[in-house]
Amino acid sequence: MSTPPGEYYTDERWQNWLDRIENEGIDPEDEDSARLLLNLQDDAAIAVAKILTDYDDGELDEETALSELAGVREIVLDEIEIDDEETLMLIDGVQTSLVCVFYAAEEYTAEGVASDATVTDYVGAAADAEAEEDLDAALGYCVQAGTRIIDGDELPMEVVEDLEYGLVSEWVNGLDSLQTALSDPEVVEEDED
């Protein structure tokens, strides 16, 4: 049975995660806190993966898939109101990681798979572009890498580990969540301990 439109991800679902993060407080040095942020990210990536899977399976046409992706993107990338600056910054990091996931999903749906290079080459080009402070190009290369990951290519872990911390590493982190979601689209339980 296909997921009804608008039900891949909801405001309420996102807000439940935010409330939980705000209530529990986040310490990036603490493993459980870090896992909570990763679960927030993975949960959104899973919604994207489900839309892409339904699109690939012919259950959604291009227009509907793009509309669903836009709906999830609006929820996830909307401005957040949390008083604690550090928590806000950490959630902003998750949102940054997911920017590339949404762009890659939209690119894949509208334009298909980038075919000029491998995932590794695209990520390398993105890192080079970031080093030259050409962030638009860096994002473009990450998006192209993302279309290949959606198509089934692997994102090699050594590529991820070699990246300097910055926007490209955050975007690639999001693509890693998307890759995981595509291979194992299990729902992340909100009320797990």
List strands and helices in order, with pairings.
Layout: H1 11-24, H2 31-56, H3 62-77, H4 85-111, H5 119-131, H6 135-150, H7 157-162, H8 167-183
Task: Explain how this protein is built.
It is a single chain. The protein is an all-alpha fold and 193 residues long. It has one domain (11-183). The protein contains eight helices and no strands. Helix 1 packs antiparallel against helix 2 and helix 2 packs across helix 8. It comes from Haloarcula salinisoli. This is DUF2150 family protein. It holds the Pfam family DUF2150.
Short note summarizing the structure:
With 193 residues, the protein is mainly alpha-helical. It has eight helices and no strands. The protein has one domain (11-183).
Largest sheet report? none
The shape is: globular
Category from helices, strands and their pairing:
mainly alpha
Give the radius of gyration: 16 Å
Distance between the termini: 30 Å
Question: How many distinct domains?
Answer: 1
Which stretches are poorly predicted, pLDDT < 50 over at least 5 residues? none
Estimate percent helicity: 55-70%
How many beta-strand elements?
0
Helical segment count: 8
* Averaged pLDDT: 90
- What share of residues are in beta strands? under 5%
Give the H and E element order: HHHHHHHH
